[in-house]
Design brief:
By secondary structure, this protein is mostly helical. 69% of the residues lie in helices and 2% in strands.
Amino acid sequence: MAARRRRRLRAQPLIHLVPNIFTVMSLCAGLTAIRYGLDQRFELALMLIVVAGVFDGLDGRSARLLKITSKLGAQLDSLADFLSFGVAPALLVYLWSLNQVKGVGWALALLFATCCALRLARFNTELEEPSQPSWRSRFFTGLPAPSAAGCLIIPMLATFALGQTWPQSWYLNALVTVVVALLMVSRVPTFSIKMIVVRVKPEWILPTLIGVGLLVAGLTTAPWMTLLAIGILYLISLPISVVVGYRLQRRHARQDGGAARPRLGGDPDRVVQLESGGNPPKRDAS
């Protein structure tokens, strides 16, 4: 009877729920963006996608700062990302531009959402792999879902920032949708947030604060132009991240190759010892 009793859950401090609270807020922001998109209020819908991205960044940072990890939080984060950065932006772009070609446009929206789901599923699977090269911790494999959502809505940002209608062309949005969707499921390395230096040197404190102040001023006075500039800078960083990532990958492969090919003979025991960082095993004189 005792074995069948339901185990009582221990009370958790409220601060332990902070990462999950941010995740739920990101989910709600993405879902509300869909609602305003259906009402043709695209500016507000876009802003909610950006807010969802901010909440998505805060949940991961808060979980690491509080040293709180749980399978529930990881699964909830993936589901929220799929809705906020897979379904919501694809639906917004369809309602805004791709509905000019009904069947083709909807197929492209489905392609984007499907690639987002596949990308998140692959990311969750890679987290379970025990051995990863050190350089991989500074890169994502493929385009992350929040970044992909930001790239997808760049034509919408250009329309609101420049006051032009040409970015609403379905040809342009179809091309952007296909390219971004394929980048999500690709194997190309893209910069992770961990590439950003967390500790700021004393001589960089003042410039950093000035940069943050300018960013806040830009977001308050010209939000669409500022967001468009951030999106363009991220696009420029993609080729750089690919070059840097492949260089580190080749360097790591050469180091592994050197460890697997010792200079003295081809003894398997020696190879194993060298790969593990130990000394070669001693042999008898006979």
